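Question thread 4412

I'm putting together a teaching handout and wanted feedback from people who do this every day. The idea is simple: show students a protein as raw sequence, then show them the structure tokens that encode its fold, then repeat with a second protein so they can compare. Below is the first pair exactly as I plan to print it.
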Amino acid sequence: MPVLSIRNLNVTFKTENKAVKAVNNVSLDIEENDTIGIVGESGSGKSTLAMAILNLLPNSAKVDGEICYKHENLVGKSPEQLKYLRWTEVAVVFQKSMNALSPVHKIGNQLADVYLLHEKNATVEEAKTRIIELLKVVNLPERVYNLYPHELSGGMMQRVSIALGLIHNPEVLILDEATTALDVVTERQILEELKELEERLKITRIMITHDMSVVATACKKVAVMYAGHIVEVGLVEDVLSAPKHPYTKGLINSFASASNKNKDIHGIPGSLPDLSQEHKGCIFAPRCSISSDICFKEKPSNKMFDNNRTAACHMLGGD
């Protein structure tokens, strides 16, 4: 059974003049001990989808549909009702780890405060033991406990943020663009370490990213998101080797390949649509090179392929 099952999820941000539908009728199953990358260009709704899981969105967001964690629907629950779940069952590693912690307090003290917030009967010494243990898990030396954030490199700060996410042994770990600001060598090291942690700690990992190379390196499955819609889902090896949806093909063609130096790089023409407007047909149709009349009139349904792969496109036959 899926550890996390999302059904017909919509997230709408309301302002005085309009309503922006950032996530549109998304359905997605995430299996236990799975690793899935949610990929798409900036503004596609990836982070909004992730933050909706734990109700970390601002008050201007209206959420409807279902987000079931172990058969319990989280939609509509208040932050107070989700206290038992946050960090202990489902944790998040946020973007911009360099700004995640207070610059005037030592790393160890800050992480110990978070630990003691949930483990109210634990002593300060027990908290310190747990934090030092976690620092070792993410390949940081014990001395980091007594350092300030400014004394750490970007890669070390990212590891601290991952340690913070693991502090209560969550079953699901969401990483929101967690390696974006790192150099490629450090990024690769952290991705490899994440895979090892996942196997050792039996974690279900969700990676939010705009980078197809991160998905290729560190995920088993991928969900491609465009303008609030999930347009393709499947095993990474299937989707990257033979993408079905035109948007997925465009994303792959927009990245350089180290294994194929002769590959031509092409951007996707146009820009994201105005999500405050209604769109009758396929949301990607105005930017699609193979769209036809039906694409502008009717929304495509998901078509099934081998290995539980799906893609929503009128131009696909399906199995």
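The second pair follows. I'd like the answer to focus on this one:
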Amino acid sequence: MDMPLAVDLARIQFAFTISFHIVFPAFSIGLASYLAVLEALWLATGRQVYLDTFQYWLKIFAVAFGMGVVSGIVMSYEFGTNWSVFADKTGPILGPLMGYEVLSAFFLEAGFLGVMLFGLEKVGKRLHFMATLLVAAGTFFSAFWILSVNSWMQTPTGYGINAAGQFVPEDWWAIVFNPSFPYRLVHMVLAAYLTTALVVGAVGAWHLLRDSGNKGARVMFSMAMWMAAIVAPVQIVAGDMHGLNTLEHQPAKVAAMEGHFETQRGAPLILFGLPDMVAEETRYALEIPKLGSLILTHDPDGEVKGLKAWPPEDRPNSTIIFWSFRIMVGLGFLMVGLGFWSLWLRYRKRLYEPGWVHRAAILMGPSGFVAVLAGWITTEMGRQPYTVYGLLRTVDSASPLDAPAVAISLAVFAVVYFFVFGAGVFYLLRLMSHEPTSREGGLPETEPVRAAGMGQAGAVKPAAKEDRQ
């Protein structure tokens, strides 16, 4: 694709900043829901270990949430500095959607985060639990609106174009619930839950290898493995449905993902290879005959379009997308394997015995973040050469840019981000390395119950068979 150097640098800068940003919302969306579940379990059972685990992850959530907010602010400025034409042409549609995200999601998160972090002894357990639920709901609404915005850019509907060349709303229902939005929302939310589960599982496994009797670590590892065993297979089904939707609305993206250049019936599934955009072929392809058509069309002889069906200037870069897609899918199957492995050990009552499953869980800890990044690379690179698919080209969306200025700002971003967010990640890892202990929040065991007004009759009783999860 023959794009000016300044536009390519602006794309790299936005990709760099959003890559740092997306990992924190993906973590905080899942972690907020996990905290709500932990607090609900504590309220339902009265077991101190659930409160301790809640307090343990609450500190980590606060840091991750703050880093997500800070890293997201920069991108708003980039729309004005690097992508002013895009902002002008899509503003009548994307502006209100982003405003809804602030009004519905950020207000909930900002309004109740303080109560969630500091209010347990002050407002009582019921109001505190409501605050936790509202923060979790806020993170979900944030994902809802952001994915609606991005999905509209992938599958634009419900719009008109005015005399100034701007996209204007004609049907807000069609805009918000555009054809790809439901599939992408489900896929991303499940990815956030899996990402959080793998981090929680890795932390629990790390501490179980040091003390297999640690109650907090047992709760973390058990709940994380349940999530992996249940949600990872569901995510594969959701991903397949999302892929079929993409095939319907963005077939060029699917052709690039699969590494197909020729349109053919009974297309093979290319497991590995090296797509060559210049030679228009995938070199050294390792194929399974007809499986590509079976997966994509559910017919072994179904027709699958190749990239040659589109002019060279309209083709996404298969060299990158081919591998980012396989990284995402490969990690997804490893997650399924880890979940099923844990089920087998749970059945044999050996889930907490230090062993290879715990080492595997530690290695898989960052895999959710890698899969999320690989998925977003596939999605965004697959939309090229458009910002609004089929309607507004990327090269026509940029501000009048000076390549040296963009290069300097990119270098500054790289230095600052690696320093600031590197320090933040280091601090998060320090918090996670801290061994889970009783009374993480510094509260005596019955204090939260008394604060709720239950009195002595509501005092917590030790649960029978405490170690059974």
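Top answer:
Good format. For the second protein you could add a caption like this: Residues 5-191+245-316+399-458 form one domain. The mean pLDDT is 85.
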